């Protein structure tokens, strides 16, 4: 019986595992192998080398782009999560149960349109003659169009924060919904103010949702390609644009692979650090 159950379990897990290996593990393994090979003229020389990683981390341009990508991802994550928490809190605690589905439906409306279309819309909104500049000029608030809101890092942060807002709101909402309201009432009955009850009860219990939101937003934004390409300009290029340049323009697969592996390593390290700090936060002082 146990053997048959185990075989049935392996049969269920097998196809998805094979699918994941073929479409995820195999490409990642290929990139990792390429990063240790030598680039030749229009070919890849099968000679082991660490020169690609040395170039990726010592070249000022590559290092600057990777640090910029890390900074943009952190800024987008901070802005998105900070703005998403009040929305999720309002829907969870202040919206009637029969209307929560409607609010969640409204939150997911941005998913109705293509991500590419949304980026183009932000390009129109932030443009030299876009909605923001035209409105401010019409109201007489500014004398000339603002130039710091497009084709730079600011435009990338604004666009990505909007694009990933629903991904941040929904996990936080789920975590808030799981909180037993009796715990909040007990805290206030013991003399705690609403602010302290939120800080000592609601926020710690909602941290799993906050963690999920942070990781869901941070991991894809650091490797985003479309948004920096369309609204970033020369000052807003990120690591994905650099990898694309190495692969498709310079035909340097080993160096592009080394930059990609470096970026994935940065994501892994930062994510693990955050998870460690979060555990310390939940555990509290001894």
TrEMBL record:
Transmembrane segments: 17-37, 70-95, 101-117, 124-142, 148-176, 197-219, 255-277
PROSITE patterns membership: ABC_TM1
Keywords: Cell membrane, Membrane, Transmembrane, Transmembrane helix, Transport
Domain (ABC transmembrane type-1) ranges: 66-276
Gene3D superfamilies for the chain: MetI-like
Broad class of where this protein is predominantly found: membrane
The keyword Hydrolase belongs to this UniProt entry's keyword annotation: no
Compartment(s) where it occurs, according to its Swiss-Prot or TrEMBL record: Cell membrane
Source taxon at top rank: Bacteria
UniProt keyword Membrane, yes or no: yes
InterPro entries tied to this protein: MetI-like (IPR000515), MetI-like_sf (IPR035906)
Topology with respect to the bilayer: Multi-pass membrane protein
Protein family (similarity comment): Belongs to the binding-protein-dependent transport system permease family. CysTW subfamily.
Name this protein carries in UniProt: ABC-type spermidine/putrescine transport system permease subunit I
């Amino acid at each position: 019986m146990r053997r048959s159950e185990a075989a049935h379990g392996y049969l269920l897990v097998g196809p998805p595992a094979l699918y994941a290996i073929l479409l995820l593990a195999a490409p990642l393994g290929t990139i990792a192998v390429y990063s240790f090979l030598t680039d030749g003229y229009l070919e890849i020389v099968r000679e082991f080398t660490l020169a690609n990683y040395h170039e990726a981390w010592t070249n000022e341009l590559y290092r600057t782009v990777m640090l910029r990508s890390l900074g943009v991802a952190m800024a987008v994550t901070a802005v998105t999560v900070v703005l998403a928490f009040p929305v999720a809190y309002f829907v969870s605690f202040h919206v009637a149960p029969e209307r929560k589905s409607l609010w969640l439906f409204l939150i997911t409306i941005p998913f109705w349109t293509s991500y590419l279309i949304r980026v183009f819309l932000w390009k129109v909104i932030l443009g030299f003659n876009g909605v923001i500049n035209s409105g401010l000029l019409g109201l007489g608030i500014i004398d000339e169009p603002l130039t710091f809101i497009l084709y730079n890092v600011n435009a990338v942060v604004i666009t990505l924060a909007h694009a990933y807002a629903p991904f941040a709101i929904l996990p936080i909402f789920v975590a808030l919904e799981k909180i037993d309201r009796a715990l909040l009432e007990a805290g206030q009955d013991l003399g705690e103010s609403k602010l302290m009850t939120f800080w000592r009860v609601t926020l710690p219990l909602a941290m799993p949702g906050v963690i999920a939101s942070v990781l869901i937003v941070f991991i894809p934004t650091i490797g985003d390609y479309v948004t920096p390409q369309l609204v970033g300009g020369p000052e807003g290029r990120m690591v994905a644009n650099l990898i694309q340049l190495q692969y498709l323009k310079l035909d340097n697969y080993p160096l592009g692979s080394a930059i990609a592996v470096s970026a994935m390593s940065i994501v892994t390290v930062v994510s693990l650090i955050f998870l460690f700090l979060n555990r310390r936060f939940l555990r509290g002082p001894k």
